UniProtKB/TrEMBL annotation:
Superkingdom in the source lineage: Bacteria
Residue ranges annotated for the VOC domain, each copy included: 8-128
Coiled coil: none
UniProt name for this protein: Glyoxalase
Organism, as annotated: Croceicoccus mobilis
InterPro entries: Glyas_Bleomycin-R_OHBP_Dase, Glyas_Fos-R_dOase_dom, VOC_core
Pfam families (UniProt xref): Glyoxalase
PROSITE patterns the UniProt entry points to: VOC (PS51819)
TM regions (residue ranges): none
SUPFAM superfamilies found in the cross-reference section: Glyoxalase/Bleomycin resistance protein/Dihydroxybiphenyl dioxygenase
């Protein structure tokens, strides 16, 4: 078994019946830019690009032709993001009116935020290297 293990996830593909709602959600929450995937119908598919231009989230509507209804994709529990600037992220989540769960791991200097996207996908935002003083008070 040679080679090296992958260290980055290239993208996440989300199947939804609500393409516009899903795109708007991720554009606003993650500050991604919507783009039409090359060679695909932009009425059914979207790529959401980060600031570096990489399409990190692909969103598609299911079709009878491909027989993919978005079900049965396994036991994926959540998608996690490594973040910085907790206050900015929390303000953005609150401004969107999203229900947000906070989980603290003081021993690891880690605070986590959890939200649910329009299709029920759990998103985790990890803030590493939180100062210990942040854990002395209830999270905002």
């Amino acid at each position: 078994m040679g080679g090296t293990a992958p260290v980055l996830i290239d993208h996440v593909n989300i199947r939804t019946d609500r393409l516009e709602e899903a795109c708007a959600f991720y554009e606003r929450l993650l500050l991604l830019t919507r783009d039409a995937p090359p060679g695909l119908d932009p009425a059914r598919y979207a790529w959401l690009r980060n600031g570096a231009g990489h399409a990190v989230i692909h969103i598609a509507t299911p079709s009878e032709r491909d027989g993919d209804d978005g079900q049965g994709t396994g036991a994926l529990h959540h998608v996690a993001f490594s973040c910085s600037d907790y206050d900015t992220w929390r303000s953005r989540i609150d401004a969107m009116g999203l229900r947000c769960e906070v989980n603290d791991f003081p021993a690891a200097s880690l605070r986590q935020l959890f939200v649910i996207d329009p299709d029920g996908i759990r998103l985790e935002f990890n803030f590493h290297d939180m100062p210990q003083a942040a854990f002395a008070q209830a999270p905002a």
